[in-house]
Amino acid sequence: MKLFNTLTRKTEQFLPLNPPKVTFYSCGPTVYDYTHIGHLRTFVNNDLLKRTLEYAGFDVHHVMNITDVGHLTGDDDSGVDKLEKGAKKQNKSVWDIVQFFTEQFIQSIKRLNIVPPKELCKATDHITDMIELIQKLEKRGVTYQTDEAIYFDTSKFLNYGNLSHQKIDEKIVQARKEVYSDPNKRNPVDFALWFKCIGRFKKHVMRWKSPWGDGFPGWHIECSAMSMKYLGDTIDIHAGGIDHIPIHHENEIAQSEGATEKPFVKYWFHSAFLLVDNEKMSKSKNNFYTIDDLKNKGYDPISLRYLFLMTHYQKPLNFTWEALTAAQNGLNTLRQWAISLRDSSTRSNLYLEKLEKTVNYQKQISDAIFDNSQFPQALAVLYEMLKSNIPPVDKWDILMDFNHVSGLKLDDFHKVIIPQSVTLIAEKRNQARKRGDFDTADKLRDEISKLGFTVEDVTSGFILKK
Ligand code: AMP
Ligand code: ZN
């Protein structure tokens, strides 16, 4: 199996430290707002990687954090506390906010058929681990204290900047753009390990006792503490979105390696971003979508997983409703195939020997998946295989194998399957509407309802429902 490693910028042979075990940490959500389809792209890509590793025979130990400690709006210690901001906006306590959005996150990943991590750990349950790690760093002489915080001294860590391949001077220029900076911070790229509840954080709600007085942890320290606690000093894979490369992940490396003097992570796996109509998602632009928004418009949440599968994880993905409609239709087609092949799934002696052609298709699909997660290519071969003349029982086997590694729930037979004949009538009706021929459109709608379905018009086309 091959994986692109952000650290080396190369696609490398994947060789875990202690096979068949694979230690895997992925950065989870900050639960101060809704989990949106952008977050879900990264979480699905991580899930596809995990399923692929298991498909290859590895035994994956997966840990994911939930950031329920308020960290600041700027990744670089600037700005205000995200949780307190969210709480104020919604007139709720920070604890209510955390609970509400944690549940929404768990519900969202369930709807997308994401396999839950072995440990889904909350930052607030690991404050002691973080304090111990900071004390370890203090003993090694790589920290300093100001009136406001305990900082990691980046000048003591020679490899700082290796992950993002940025020169330290470039980083300093970027860091100087901070809105607020502690006047006693020695270097703009130094980062807080612990904030004290004095000065600008005097009234901070979430606070814990510590050797440095009441305070709260900096954001980055939680991932180092939890990764090392559950998975050991050096792990095989660490995953997240590309936005985390220059600050969060760079800082995780500095803290962890600063404490242990061992490599923190062997392979760094990063997902490119999801855009909506070629723009960054934001509430003010009204292009901020959650899984419930998709469901309310009549889409099966798994259609989003299908959409993600169609674009390689390292390429940006532009979300449009047209693309989601196409993904929903693609999913329906595969489910239709599953239904029609199901009856041929009993293997007769005649088919015990697989044809060379069958073995080839199977190999092409797994080769694509094992080659740095080339799911779009695997999907193309899957369609070619379904249309080929290999025995139906072999098609069924390959389809179910793909189903397992892709998580598309193709064997969820209770899901309503829209027959191709009904989709064809709906397409004709859509054409009629577009040319203004409403008589024909109405007649075709009646035809569809006689077959037991309703058709709903949406901006991107139509949606059929039983
Ligand atoms: P956050 O709660 O902001 O820390 O995000 C949780 C995860 O989602 C991180 O791994 C982010 O990199 C990722 N993420 C956030 N926004 C997007 C987006 N628009 N597209 C892809 N991944 C994202
Ligand atoms: Zn993290």
Automatic annotation (TrEMBL):
EC number(s) from the headed UniProt entry: 6.1.1.16
Extent of motif 'HIGH' region: 29-39
GO cellular component labels: cytosol
Cofactor binding comment, as recorded: Binds 1 zinc ion per subunit.
Subcellular location: Cytoplasm
Subcellular location, principal: cytoplasm
Binding site for Zn(2+): C27, C223, H248, E252
Start and end residues of each tRNA synthetases class I catalytic domain: 15-328
SUPFAM superfamilies registered for this protein in UniProt: Anticodon-binding domain of a subclass of class I aminoacyl-tRNA synthetases, Nucleotidylyl transferase
The protein's required cofactors: Zn(2+)
Residues reported to bind ATP: K283
Domain Cysteinyl-tRNA ligase anticodon binding stretches: 428-457
GO molecular function: ATP binding; cysteine-tRNA ligase activity; zinc ion binding
UniProtKB keywords: Aminoacyl-tRNA synthetase, ATP-binding, Cytoplasm, Ligase, Metal-binding, Nucleotide-binding, Protein biosynthesis, Zinc
Pfam families for the chain: CysS_C, tRNA-synt_1e
Chain span(s) of sequence motif 'KMSKS' region: 280-284
Reactions performed catalytically: tRNA(Cys) + L-cysteine + ATP = L-cysteinyl-tRNA(Cys) + AMP + diphosphate
Keyword Flavoprotein tagged: no
Single biological process term from Gene Ontology: cysteinyl-tRNA aminoacylation
Subunit details: Monomer.
Homology family: Belongs to the class-I aminoacyl-tRNA synthetase family.
Name of the protein: Cysteine--tRNA ligase
Species per Swiss-Prot/TrEMBL record: Candidatus Roizmanbacteria bacterium RIFCSPLOWO2_02_FULL_36_11
